Write the structure tokens for this entry.
Amino acid sequence: MDRVRLLPVDRLAVPEWAKASAEVASAGLLRSMRAVPSVVATIGALAWRASRVLTATAVVLQVVSGAVTAFGLLATTQVFTALLQDSPTPQRLSASLPVLAVVVAAVAARAFLDSAVSAVEASLRPAVARSAEDAVTAAAARVSLISFEDAEFQELVRRASSDGLEAIASSVRSATQLISAVVSMTAAVVAAAVIDPRLAVVLALAAAADGWASVRASRLGRWHFLDTVTRRMTKSVVAEAATARRFAVERHALVLRERLLREHRALTADLAREETRLARRTALVRLAGRAVSGVGTAAAYGVLVLLLWTGSLPLGVAGTAVLAVRAASAALTACLRTVDLIHESAPEVELHARLLTEAARRAERRTGSTAPADPAVIRLTAVSFAYPGQHRPAVRDVDLTIRRGQVIALVGENGSGKTTLAKLITGLYPAGGGTVHWDDVDVAAADPDTVHERVAVIAQAPAEWPMTAEHAIRIGRHDKRVPDAHWHHALTASGADEVLAALPDGPDTVLSRRFHNGQDLSGGQWQRIAIARGIYRAAPILVADEPTAALDAKAEARVFAALRAAGTNRTTILVTHRLANVRTADWIVVMDRGRIVEQGTHDHLHAAEGHYHDLYETQARAYR
Ligand SMILES: Nc1ncnc2c1ncn2[C@@H]1O[C@H](COP(=O)(O)OP(=O)(O)OP(=O)(O)O)[C@@H](O)[C@H]1O
């Protein structure tokens, strides 16, 4: 069997987000504890916002529960003291009965309060999750368009909406458990200290070892996660390549299925071996923890016996001490575990606040200034633009004037900056340097919605809107009633009329294969729908970015005729490599490596025998 490696697993770098786990894995208990207040505060604030009543109820129940526990323990001392009196048994029993009833009532109350806390937490968790999810979705939806080009921000959105929300939901439980454990422990320690302060020391001894073992085991789990994270990611990439629809045709045609399966199996076996190794090491650590804990508990009881022996602790009090030791031990172990869990989820919980802050910074600002409804002149002055995280500008030092009603063609080689320039002209992307004016309004200072209202875009890779065919066309003007003359024009000019006629339910056909009666379209059919959507939007500025790349010759001719026929009502920015179609454009702008290298009419540029002439002649030769 060949050892298939489509990805160089051993050389893949651990992603940035996973590195936070290394920090958690190497942290000591004190560092873990320092992470707790901020997580508990974040969760508390989210809970308070989600439901004040439930949050307040949870806190009150926890405090009452602690008070009842302490009270119960103190009352137990009375029971023991009554039982251990120097008198006949029936008398001792009857003397202890009233306090015994109090102890039983305290135990019952504690059980009831614990259930109530669980019930409140069960209602609070989904409420917090819902409110956090709503905040994340709203924040991510309201950012400016350019934010979607920023890979780091996109990664933050992705992680805050998956890992972040999960961590918040689980931290609600951890925070409740931590508070519960702290309250129980405080109750036991307070009760012990009231009886005899030396007992408080005894309690700490007994609980420490078990807590150490549980923290150590979870550290092992985290190192294991770091060791295997790139292999897990590779496995999921391979699984996707082996099963996802978007790879299906090439997967079959390239006869890749068995290779992918073999790689998937090899990775799965490798990870399974690591899991087994981890399970073995964890079991050993837990065993060691139990052993040390046993010694700790023995030491605690030893101290108790010593106190009894020396007569410095009455027998009745010692009985209560045993109960307090057990309660505190369980509470301290739970406490350490939850501290560890909270520290572990801290980086993910923190994503929530980070996303909200970052999204607020990137939110489309409202300036109150309105873009002109139908600009007569669009003027770019020394415009430059670099994509987020890129040093090299995609567009540099562009000066350009466009007049209403013109068809402007942007031409040039792949990557020369045509699409980017079209987005700058239409105010979809903000200029990094220089200015874009629509009449006398600086587009950067106008409310983005008022700018977008004036623009229709036929994108290079149009969105395949998963809705009915009719709505996929109407979506840019859903306030208008169809059918009207404009609707028919959009359908016939784009050739979408033929697409609708061929669909099983016509315009009502759902364009998504996720639904049983849904339908997918061919590339050219999707493009016709996108062109119809662009024309139907009837905006004063239309950007058509490679609108006919997937169209047949007849449909292409129809579309270009329609774009040219828009007349003085519409300014059209046409990005295309089909130079035969730009001959009739009013103005041709030739781009090379982000700069405008030539501009003019076809005749003028062709006669100049420069860059445009070369591009044009190369294509024309192929037809001659
Ligand atoms: N989202 C992005 N992030 C980073 N760089 C980008 C992004 N989109 C485009 N670029 C870069 O910006 C430059 C201009 O790209 P643009 O898409 O404007 O070119 P184009 O002329 O429209 O190309 P094509 O003819 O291939 O469509 C290219 O170097 C490209 O690699």
Q: What stands out?
A: The chain has three domains: 18-362, 371-454+539-624, 465-538. Strands lie at 377-385, 395-403, 407-412, 433-438, 441-442, 455-458, 541-545, 571-575, 587-592, 595-600. Residues 149, 387, 390, 394, 412, 414-420, 460 surround adenosine-5'-triphosphate (CB under 6 Å). The first helix runs from residue 16 to 26.
